[in-house]
Design a protein that fits this description.
binds arginine; alpha/beta; flat; four-stranded antiparallel β-sheet; five-stranded mixed β-sheet
Length: 591
Amino acid sequence: MLDTRFNTQEKVGLGMQETVNRCESQLAEWLRQAFRAAFGEAQEWESIRVQPATDARFGDFQCNDAMPAAKLLRRPPRAVAEAVLAALPLPPMLTRAEIAGPGFINLTVSPEWLAEQVAALSAAPRFGIPVAGHGRTVVIDYSSPNVAKPMHIGHIRSTVIGNALDRIFRALGYRVIADNHLGDWGTQFGLLIQGYRTFLSDAEREALTVEALERVYVQSYNRSKEDPAWLESCKAELVKLQQGDPENRAIWERFIAISRNEFDRIYKRLDVSFDLTRGESFYNDMLPETIQMLQEKGLAVESDGALVVRLEEEGMPVCIVRKSDGGFNYAATDIATVRSRVAEFNPDRIIYVTDERQQLHFRQFFAVCAKLGCTARLEHVWFGLMRLPEGTFSTRQGNVIKLEALLDEAERRALEIIKASNNDMPEAEQKALAAAIGIGAIKYADLSHDPQTLIVFTWEKALALEGNSGPYLQYAHARVCSLLDKYAEQVPGRDPLGNVLLLNEPVEKTLALQLMQFPAAVLRAAETCKPSVLADYLFSLSQTYSSFYQRSPVLKAEPAVRDSRIRLCAMVAQVLAEGLGLLGIAAPRRI
Ligand code: ARG
């Protein structure tokens, strides 16, 4: 992730320094007191932190701060740790505090205390996701396909990753403006308008489709390469459009309406919605003024007829803001867009989600915005392309996999799986489930990878019922729900979340400790702009759950243990549903 921070005034951090995990913060607070008791007041003790144990055999949590403290105090780290632990009696939340290695402090918490902590999370809204936004605004620019071209598989990652970030930031209490920055302006419209008039029959124009437009574009583009007169006529149509010619304007508007209609169909299937869908054209009138401002500040200079901003100091090639033919370009639009967003929403961050090929473009115009005094934090979340084992998904290779076809296939394959195991389910229910599983599988195949990696997409992996897949997590959730249903039959009218929680078995404690990590995982996913952090967490939670379930009978255990275990199960269901929801993945109760 490229993070260009232009802020002059320091804004409150997202919370990386604060400890989100309520166990960790209480333990750290006790250790701070112990450091004070052992060595007196010092500013440095404020930075004492506790983290989950790297090796569960030594405890539940650990503190590594005796080492830096030892430097400060000029004493051996182990001696420091010993003095700290000797300074105060063991509090009721701990059953053990020990020193290991060079001076690690290992802490084992009491099951009763841990039970209280996890119960408090479970009772909190959204399982304790912290309100880290403090009313701050984030604009997320994602999906952003180009008009008159079908949305292809290359746009899926932007849509899916962007939407997950959108949901995660909202959950953290940010004001999120999700903006679909459509590519609806530019030289291609001259080629399209002229081609539309020439290559399509009346009937085709009547029943215009995005596919027809794509064909028109290719045909018109090819002809422009060999026929200069054609190219000239296309340019003339573009100029007419830019000057507001009513006929060309109406045709262009129709291209947009038809494209949006198709995009909306896909967004509906993906359960994605935006606060704004502003195309590049929205900023068109602001371009001259933006360029003028760059000139007045002495930032933009003429070079070979074009207007450019030099970025030598930043170690980048010049950023062209006006082409030699006088036309404004992609960079000019993006700079104007930042100005407009800052004026309208005063965002703290603007996050752009696109593929890796646009990295230079973003770095360049971020640098130009910095020169203009932009104080919002501009971030480019780029992702590697998604490929099929046999090659790329990209349009240029002619091997176009349209997004819609991919979604159809996902649902078809999911339906086959469902039919094989649920013959008695009504047809309509099977179809709804197939949509939830098929779309979930595609989303998860994307979100479970670090955005900045190349994904080789295979149906086998995406739809696997075992292993790190969307369906695996959905099944895990549905299985817990069915266990809860059975419990409800066995013990009618009892809310499992009201039961007494006992964490006597090691695996129960492990599960509770892992549930405690949910809010931190959500926060970390936002901080790093990597929904994969949350996906990893959910996968690891469901693995822990499955080993808990294998080792600890729930419904057959004696009542007190059964009631406690079912409460743990109910919490696992809470977290899986909440976490999948943040990834934009449905969590059906029954599969
Ligand atoms: N329309 C562009 C594309 O399909 C993505 C736009 C991303 N957003 C932006 N503000 N540049 O590649």
